[in-house]
Amino acid sequence: MGKIYPKKRSRKKKSLKAMIFGGLFFCSLAGLAYFLVWSPYFWVSRIEFEPDKPPRYYRQDDVKKIVQEVLDDKIWHFIPRKSVFLFPAEGIRSGILVRYPEIKSVKAGKKFPNAVRLAIEERTGVGIWCQLERPTAEALAAEEAKISTSSPDTSGILPKTEGKKIGQCFTLDQEGVIYRESALIEGDFVLNIFSGKAAAPPRIGDEVASWETMDFILKLKDGLPGVKPAGGLSLSAANFEIVSAGDLRVKTSVGFEIYFNPGYSIGTQLGALQMVLDNEIKENYVSLEYIDLRIEGRVYYQ
């Protein structure tokens, strides 16, 4: 019986073919990657904005410069980020938000073959927030002397908080974020909110009130005029003071204060307020100092 020898030459040919095809595939892949990354055809050359309307707080040319600075950066010092396949969406987003606290959100997307599309949403102010500060005894005495001689009456706008004065003021959005410095503005159509002094000075971009508290305040501002003391006058809020998460104080247009708790139903509290005005306080509301609704199921007044 004859011997059978392995076909070594055939195996060598298959191995050589696999190496050749593998090399060709790698070269093709490398060439494609080089073309997609280094080809000027895919480099970002256009920046589009959505919606295409005049912005309030920024200039589109300035935003384009921020985007271009991010795109001019390189990965490992030699791979360009300006290819539409590698553009850093998060870097663009954070760069714009840091520069413009007035902008609420940025979405950066690519548009083939060589464009970046930006969807920018600006913040909308709903009121003015001011920090309340407690001055030293010496400063308080000097301020009282000044008020008694020359200062105008601010009782209609300042919160009823003994020994406190108003510090910095900022424009506030509905999420409780401050984003522009502002003066305190008096008026029936202006929402003024005050808070006590925090551990650190307020900075633009800080959240000074929670979303839940802001939602409560906005609903309360709309709902309070529906409460009517004896005589048919509607109540309205002159200002709000956030004392704590469960203590929101409202100075009314009539003069007395109302203490609310944002932790439970606003409808329940307004109903209790109307009930105590109708059944107990009646015409005596003109001499009221406060009505306290902070404890659910109970009402105190003085």
From TrEMBL:
Has the keyword Transmembrane helix been applied to this entry?
Answer: yes
- Which keywords, in A-to-Z order, does the entry hold? Membrane, Transmembrane, Transmembrane helix
Q: Which domain of life is it from?
A: Bacteria
**Which residues span the membrane?**
20-43
UniProt name for this protein: Uncharacterized protein
This chain's source organism reads Candidatus Portnoybacteria bacterium CG_4_8_14_3_um_filter_44_15
